[in-house]
Amino acid sequence: MDRQNVLFFIFRLHGGGAERVVSNLSMDLEQDYTIRIAVFDKIDKVYPHKGELIRINVPFSGDPATNNKAVRAIRLWLLVRRLRKIKRIHKIDTTVSFGEQANIINVLSGGRTVLSVRTLLSTEMRTAPNMRVLRNFVKTLYTRGDHIIVPSRVAGQDLSGNFSVPPEKIKVIYNYLDPQRIDRFAVESLDDQFLKQLFGLPVLLNVGRITAAKGQWLLLEMMPAIKERYPDFRLVIIGEAEKGAMLKDELLARAAELGLKVYDQAASHPRSLDNDIFLLGFQPNPYKFMRHSQVLLFPSVFEGFPNTLLEAMQSGLPVISADCQSGPREIMAPDSDLAKSTPKAEYTPYGVLCPTLPTAEMRDGIDPGIIREWLTALFTVLDDAALRQSLIENGYRRVKDFDRETILRSWRESLSLP
Q1: Which of helix, strand or coil describes residue 96?
Q2: Looking at the domain that runs over 179-399, which CATH code has it been given?
C-alpha cells in the first residue's frame, strides 16, 4: 500500500510550542507517512524536522496590524491559491494546520483537513484585539474541517461552547514529549563562557516568546523583593519578542523604573553579570538552561497546553505556573475542577499554581495581592528543600503520563484516511 502524503501547515517552524509539536510529529511520523511542511513566514530559523520544507512567499507582511483590509484579503487569497497548488502537486491526502491563520487557509484551500487549535480561543480573542476579526471565520469555517485537534479538555469545551463547533468533530490529543531527546539535549555543555558564568549563579527561568499572552511583566514586579531576599539570583527569559510589538520596549522601560538592570542579547548589550534580568532571545536548546536553573516561573495569561511545563519537569526543574486557562491545571492538578482558577498559591504534587493576571495588558497594572502570592510560592519552594525535591521527583513521574506512543497513535488515527 502506498504511503499517505501528509502536509503540516504552520506560519513558522521556530519559537513556540505549536512549532515544537510540528517538529516532533515530523520526526516521529516520517516512517509512517511522506511528510512535508509548508510555512509562510520569511524567517530562516527552524526547529529540527524531517520531510521537505516548503516556503510560501507572499508580498505582504504577516502581521495583520500592518496591513489594511484590502491587503489582508489579497494576502489571504494568495495563500489559499498557493496552498491549494501545493496540495495538488504533491497529491496531499491530509493537511494538518496549526494556528488560526493557517487553519482558515487550510479549510479554504480544500481537501481533507485537520485543524489544530493550540490555545483557548475565546480568551485570546478577548485579550488580543487583532484576533477578534477571526471570530466569524472560526464559527463559519471550522465546522468544515474533518477533525479539530485540541491540546486540552478545556480548549475543546471552549470551541464547542463559544464557537459552535460540533463536539463530535473535536478530539483532545495532549502534547507529548520525547524524554530521551530532552535528556540528550539537557546535558549539552554551556560552551559560551558568559552563559557558563551566568548559570553558575542561581537563576530563575522563564521560557516563552515575549508577548502579551505570556505575562512576563509580573516577573519584573517580583524582582525587587527577590533581590532583597536573594541578592545573587538572576532572572533569565528565553524567547524572542513578537515582531512589531511594543511590549519588549514597555518591559525595558518598566525595568528601568524599578531600578532593574537588563541585558538584552538582541540589542548587543555589553555582556556583564552586573544585571538583574537577562533576555537571551530564541534558543534552539532551552533544556540545557533548564538543567542549570532553580525554578521555572510561568506567568501566562492564557495557554492551550504549555509544553514548557512538561519540559521543565523532565529537566528536573520545579514549576510555578499561573493557573490560567487552559493547560497548567490539567497538567498539575488533573483530578481537580478544571474550571477553577485559584486566588491563592495552590501547592499540588507536581508544582505550584498561582493567581493569573486578569488581563493581557501590561498598562492595566497588577494587584499587589497577586504579586504577594507569587512571591510566597517562590520563597516557599526555594526555602523548603523537602518540598522542592518532592516537586522535582513527582514532576518527573508526571511526564510519563504523556506517553509518546499512546499520543502518536491518536495522531495516526486522525491523519489516516477513513
Answers
A1: strand
A2: 3.40.50.2000
- 131: cell is 484576533
Position 403 confidence tier, pLDDT thresholds 50, 70, 90: confident
pTM of the model: 0.79
Identify the band that residue 392 occupies on the pLDDT scale cut at 50, 70 and 90: very high
DSSP class of 342 = -
152 vs 111: CA distance, rounded Å: 26
> What is the DSSP-derived secondary structure letter of residue 8?
E
Q: How many CB atoms lie within 10 A of CB 416?
A: 13
In 30-112, alpha helices (H) = 69-89, 100-108
Strand arrangement, sheet containing 147-150: 52-55, 34-39, 5-10, 94-98, 113-116, 147-150, 170-172
CATH 3.40.50.2000 location in the chain: 5-176+403-415, 179-399
58 and 27 Cβ atoms separated by less than 8 Å: no
**Superfamily covering domain 5-176+403-415:** Glycogen Phosphorylase B; (3.40.50.2000)
Question: How many angstroms separate the CA atoms of 8 and 96, rounded?
Answer: 5
Three-state SS letters, 189-245: CCCCHHHHHHCCCCEEEEECCECHHHCCHHHHHHHHHHHHHCCCCEEEEEECECCCC
Instruction: Quick: pLDDT tens for 224-257.
Output: 999 999 999 999 999 988 765 678 999 999 999 9
